[in-house]
Amino acid sequence: MFKFFKDVSREMRKVTWPKGPELVSYTITVVATVAFVAIFFAVVDLGISQILNNMPFLNN
């Protein structure tokens, strides 16, 4: 188990972490993408719900 953590520590030293501006850019990209996908699926869900609610043979 100690060897595992030693290997993890050794590998973590090899990682190149993003600089501040690069990190901000990536964060904005991720947040914008998640917001777009959430809005897209909300609109699709609303549209499907409206279509199904307006079908008279489905309403009891």
The helix count comes to: 2
Helix content: over 70%
- Span of the ends, CA to CA: 62 Å
Whole-angstrom Rg: 24 Å
Secondary-structure element pattern, one letter each: HH
Q: How many strands appear in the DSSP assignment?
A: 0
Mean pLDDT across residues = 93
Structural class: mainly alpha
* Biggest sheet details: none
Shape: elongated
Low-confidence stretches: none
Content of β-strand: under 5%
Provide structural commentary:
- The chain is mainly alpha-helical.
- The chain has a domain at 20-60.
- It is built from two helices and no strands.
- The protein has helices spanning 2-14, 20-53.
Put the structure in a nutshell.
This protein has 60 residues and is an all-alpha fold.
Core attributes:
elongated
Helices, strands, pairings?
Layout: H1 2-14, H2 20-53
